[in-house]
Design brief:
This protein is mainly alpha-helical. The protein is built from eight helices and five strands; from the N terminus they run ββαααβαααββαα.
Length: 219
């Protein structure tokens, strides 16, 4: 591949877990089983919550959204990896890599934020039981989910747009089975200061703040 900007990039190679052909059937079976179990399990949770009126509470509302985010999260990476193993072709187009990266960040952020709201719901239920129905009303719960979507979509969009501005030279092998932001940034030839800064800041905010809130809710 000749040096150049992103317009000349045909794609990347995903190394995956192992290039040994003897391990490929085992990896394919394990990850296919994982995909089926996680998708069916989360679908059952969503159906159970939707079909029982007694489960129409804030906690289960957040849980159903978390299950949906989990289905989408695992569906952004595992199917492509299974395809690569089956076809013995480990390439992914530049557009496909950016798309995979975008949705990975969206649903990863959603998981983190929804777990935070679930911890907050538990905190209110235990510490302010009399005010719980007023505080955790359906409108407020819907607003929390909407805020989660806005934050996740905005961050993923900004990082994806920044990625489109980067130049890539001759290094185009991603040392993972999916296109992760950190793994792709190390392949860039141009300045990645803004992307890394945003990555560290958001990782700290979506890591430290939600974790602190979850731990605080258990005190």
């Amino acid at each position: 591949m000749e040096p150049g900007n992103q317009t000349s990039i045909l794609g990347f190679l995903l190394l995956g877990f192992s290039q040994d052909s003897k391990h490929q059937p085992l990896l394919f079976g394990l990850f296919l089983l994982m995909l089926v179990v996680m998708v069916l399990g989360n679908l059952l949770i969503i159906l159970a919550i939707g079909s029982h009126a007694r489960l129409h509470t804030p906690m289960y509302f957040f849980l159903s959204n978390l299950s949906l985010a989990d289905i989408c999260f695992i569906s952004t990476t595992i199917p492509k990896m299974l395809q690569n193993i089956k076809t013995q072709s480990y390439s992914i187009t530049f557009t496909g890599c950016i798309t995979q990266m975008y949705f990975f960040m969206v649903f990863g952020g959603m998981d983190t934020l929804l777990l935070t709201w679930m911890a907050y719901d538990r905190f209110v239920a235990i510490c302010h039981p009399l005010h719980y129905p007023v505080i955790m009303n359906p409108r407020f719960c819907g607003l929390l989910v909407l805020v989660s979507w806005c934050i996740s979509l905005s961050y993923a969009l900004i990082q994806s747009l920044l990625m489109l501005r980067l130049s890539f030279c001759t290094r185009w092998v991603v040392a993972h089975f999916y296109c992760g932001l950190a793994q792709v940034l190390v392949l860039a030839c141009s300045d990645t200061f803004i992307s890394y800064t945003l990555l560290y800041v958001v990782t700290a905010l979506l890591g430290f703040v939600p974790l602190s809130g979850i731990l605080f809710s258990y005190k």
